[in-house]
Amino acid sequence: MTAEKLILDGNRVASDIKETLLGRINLLSEKRIVPCLATILVGDDPSSATYVRMKGNACKRLGIQSIRIDLPKNTSTSELIAAINKLNADPNVHGILLQHPVPNQIDERAAFEAISIEKDVDGVTTLGFAQNAFGFADFPSCTPAAIIAILDYYNIPIEGKHAVVIGRSPILGKPVSLMLLNKNATVTTCHSKTTNLEDVVRLGDIVVAAVGKPKFVQGDWIKPGAIVLDAGYNEGNIGDVDYDNCLKNASAITPVPAGVGPVTIAILLKHTVEAAEKLT
């Protein structure tokens, strides 16, 4: 008899997180504080515009104020930083999210660094990254935090497990590796220069796919009984793992969509509320 597979339902986890925020938002409103997230979009990339709209709608449904700053595609780094600094100085703005990627002429890292650490609810600054590495970040990067939230929600043990992370981006692969390490997993971080990648992935009790390539992780890379968390989102609602084939070996897996994505947005809202609460 084949063991029952556990589908890690991101919508369910996200709903649980958002449910816990409602009372906290009401308490803030009694103190005349409305949590406010400002989102900056540079240019007219349709995917980025969709993400920004989704985040704005999620805010509205919970009673979080959402401010959208649209800047033209030819915006310079200094102009973008000036817009960020204006939001930093606004006491009614509690969180700032710079939608990435930004156009090529902009120094994205310089723009991220301009965000005040108190308002870095997306966890993109180097200070936020360092705090996360030491295990005391107020606002770790949202997608890594979402992955941990899913594991915690389903009571999936992390301590003592071998976690294999495929990807080393500064806002996903690296921070999730650190968060798993801080929870006492043994962590291997793989990347484009990793040799015999599939053999390394086969060692993983927990596999996190964060590579940005559709159906990159194959079913025979997955050790029987492993937990698979797909943090990828590619055109056509396709993740970074070959879902159907990985499901054959995995004991638990996140779907795409309705996996890590909804939880990432819920974590962003949670961070925004927490930033507002720090004012009370």
From TrEMBL:
Protein name per its UniProtKB record: Bifunctional protein FolD
Functional summary from the UniProt entry: Catalyzes the oxidation of 5,10-methylenetetrahydrofolate to 5,10-methenyltetrahydrofolate and then the hydrolysis of 5,10-methenyltetrahydrofolate to 10-formyltetrahydrofolate.
Taxonomy, superkingdom: Bacteria
Binding site for NADP(+): 167-169
Keywords linked to the UniProt accession: Amino-acid biosynthesis, Histidine biosynthesis, Hydrolase, Methionine biosynthesis, Multifunctional enzyme, NADP, One-carbon metabolism, Oxidoreductase, Purine biosynthesis
Gene: folD
Family statement: Belongs to the tetrahydrofolate dehydrogenase/cyclohydrolase family.
Record pathway: One-carbon metabolism; tetrahydrofolate interconversion
Species for this entry: Cohnella silvisoli
Enzyme Commission (EC) number: 1.5.1.5, 3.5.4.9
Catalytic activity: (6R)-5,10-methenyltetrahydrofolate + H2O = (6R)-10-formyltetrahydrofolate + H(+); (6R)-5,10-methylene-5,6,7,8-tetrahydrofolate + NADP(+) = (6R)-5,10-methenyltetrahydrofolate + NADPH
UniProt-listed InterPro entries: Aminoacid_DH-like_N_sf, NAD(P)-bd_dom_sf, THF_DH/CycHdrlase, THF_DH/CycHdrlase_cat_dom, THF_DH/CycHdrlase_NAD-bd_dom
Domain Tetrahydrofolate dehydrogenase/cyclohydrolase NAD(P)-binding: 141-278
Gene3D superfamilies: Leucine Dehydrogenase, chain A, domain 1 (3.40.50.10860), NAD(P)-binding Rossmann-like Domain (3.40.50.720)
Segments traversing the membrane: none
Domain Tetrahydrofolate dehydrogenase/cyclohydrolase catalytic, chain residue ranges per copy: 8-122
Subunit details: Homodimer.
